[in-house]
Amino acid sequence: MQRAIFAGGCFWCMVKPFDTQPGIISVLSGYTGGFKENPTYEEVKAGKTGHTEAVEIIFDPEVISFEELVTIYWQQTDPTDAFGQFEDRGSSYRPVIYYFNEEQQRIAEESKRQLQQSGLFKKEIVTKIEPAETFYPAELYHQAYYKKNPDNYKRNAQQRKEYIEDVWKEESL
């Protein structure tokens, strides 16, 4: 099994697109990239920890590759918005692909380069690609949120859903 960590705005909205794929063992909401140990949701949301909301994915590379995960990631975010995603604003919602090794770094950087050159976006792709840091699981009520709170999840994901439908239509990386 391998790990991947992606930050793309509200972690509630980042779970389902990965959780529903074959080869995914688990998707955990949490926090990474900051300076405070064991941060809480309220601390991260208030911008007091340097962390971003993220998802940690455990996957079987024999079934789904890191490259495929990166493709799914791009299609869930606005890679031209460095200061949040959709209605979620601030540094705790910044888009980042975290890598665990040189191969993941190479795949992420090449994918970002291809996306920039695709012409799909007129603005610069600003998603960061950074080394993975300690990942702190979020509180239990945040885990599998789309399953436990489908109505609230749907409301929170509406802007993202509309953006994805508008930008990606039938595009594929």
Automatic annotation (TrEMBL):
NCBIfam families: msrA. Has an important function as a repair enzyme for proteins that have been inactivated by oxidation. Catalyzes the reversible oxidation-reduction of methionine sulfoxide in proteins to methionine. The active site is at 10. Its EC number is 1.8.4.11. Keywords: Oxidoreductase. It comes from the Bacteria. It catalyses: [thioredoxin]-disulfide + L-methionine + H2O = L-methionine (S)-S-oxide + [thioredoxin]-dithiol; L-methionyl-[protein] + [thioredoxin]-disulfide + H2O = L-methionyl-(S)-S-oxide-[protein] + [thioredoxin]-dithiol. Belongs to the MsrA Met sulfoxide reductase family. SUPFAM superfamilies: Peptide methionine sulfoxide reductase (SSF55068). InterPro entries: Met_Sox_Rdtase_MsrA_dom (IPR002569), Met_Sox_Rdtase_MsrA_sf (IPR036509). GO terms for molecular function: L-methionine:thioredoxin-disulfide S-oxidoreductase activity; peptide-methionine (S)-S-oxide reductase activity. Residues 4-154 form the Peptide methionine sulphoxide reductase MsrA domain. The keyword Secreted does not apply. This is Peptide methionine sulfoxide reductase MsrA. Signal peptide: none annotated. It comes from Enterococcus phoeniculicola ATCC BAA-412. Coiled coil: none annotated. HAMAP family: MsrA.
